[in-house]
Amino acid sequence: MTIYTNNFLSSINKELAQLNINLKKMIVAEHPILYAAAEQLFKAGGKRIRPALVLLVAKITTTDTKIKPEQKRLAEITEIIHTASLVHDDIIDDCEKRRGINTVHNMFNHKIAVLAGDFLFAQSSWYLANLNNLNVVKTISKVITDFAEGEVQQGSKHFDNKISIQDYIEKSFYKTASLIASSCKATTILSNCNKNVQNDFYLYGKHIGLAFQIIDDILDIVSCSENLGKPAGSDLKNGNLTAPLIFALEEKPELNQLINQEFQNTADINKTIRMIKQTKAIQKSKDLAEEHIQLAIQILKNKYSNKNIENLMLTSYYILDRIS
């Protein structure tokens, strides 16, 4: 864990520890297989970036920097929704590992995995309704439809070498940034902030989410399987053309042939990764992520004191630091 992580999480360490305890209590299911499948997801841990952002935004926007119980619950709901989306992602992408352990469909079967994902979405909806705040329900509910839109967009562009960076950013918003943006906004609603503040933190979350996805996609190319917790080159194998490959196509049009052949084997994937690394694509992708980080920071720096937003700034730098 980097210096950034230690710094930006230090003020909410207690809340994050409690969140991990509460998540296990919130996924109680009557059927033991369904419970085991859901528990498998949380056993792997994860970065907990999404709930951390909710808790940090809560500290900034409440009058006495005291996080409300409803905001702590929102952080938990956010992580459950994210985890549910991963189950469905793993099924669609036929991913064998997630965070270094067997995926649910690999450990059980596809039917159990689908049901586990649906169960988690249902649980999150129930807890969301119990917040008794219609605006928060409306804001977070939209995320689940965005997930579906993102998956459809991604599925309809498998191995499509005509995909543009704009298409990629739009899909990344639906699949990743929407949840982060909406949960940041919902936190400010629970803090009784005005519409301008709600919009500021929505945009902050949107740009942080886009940067986070771009960095994830770079790591899929430059990291080893052990660091990723899943096989490197998974996006290529599944036909998901991301920023590094889209940028690399500008310099190496011969990559089109490998895309058209749908990366038939591991050798093709390794060859593609080598070719991407020979171009400026990784740097261009990192520049794109940094652009979104700077937009996120600027939104807050223009209106809030540096002291108040310090931890959110560190979060932003941590995201970039993952590939330095």
TrEMBL record:
Pfam families: polyprenyl_synt. Keywords: Chloroplast, Isoprene biosynthesis, Magnesium, Metal-binding, Plastid, Transferase. The keyword Cell wall biogenesis/degradation does not apply. The keyword Magnesium applies. Its cofactor is Mg(2+). It comes from the Eukaryota. GO terms for molecular function: metal ion binding; prenyltransferase activity. GO terms for biological process: isoprenoid biosynthetic process; quinone biosynthetic process. NCBIfam families: prenyl_cyano. Belongs to the FPP/GGPP synthase family. PANTHER family: ALL TRANS-POLYPRENYL-DIPHOSPHATE SYNTHASE PDSS1, GERANYLGERANYL PYROPHOSPHATE SYNTHASE. This is Prenyl transferase.
